[in-house]
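Risk register update: the risk that structure generation would not scale has been downgraded. Supporting records follow, first protein first.
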Amino acid sequence: MRFTDIFIRKPILASVVSLLILLLGLRAISEMNVRQFPEIKNAVVTVSTVYVGADADLIQGFITTPLEREIAAAEGIDYLWYPLLSPVPVLSRPICA
């Protein structure tokens, strides 16, 4: 008789042992020290521009593109995001340290 045959013949015992392992794992996670978790720092740079009476091409050419170039040149910035359907150009750059 193998070790696994016990659990095949007694499925309730297999369920109890599985729940016991699960509970021990949950307890171990809850008692883990905070120093075991990594420190995460996220920052976001947001720039909003509003020019009343200016069309989209003017804002794109003279405001959004130069700002985008300057922000993209900064170190530690992962990606650039701005909503295409927003009436106000917004450049948002998450910075991961």
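Supporting record for the second protein:
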Amino acid sequence: MNNFAQRSGLGLPLCESIVKNLGGQIGLVSALGKGTTWGVTLPTGKNISS
């Protein structure tokens, strides 16, 4: 069985929706032949004033 077979493709869109609803950001960087790195940034819920 091929572990890299294409699936339904719902994983990343679901993650993006959850992260956006929490006020965060999701991003990714992809390089041909090197792979893809993705990350999530979520707010802490603390107000930081200067």
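The beta strands are 25-31, 35-41. On this basis the risk owner (M.S.) recommends closing the item.
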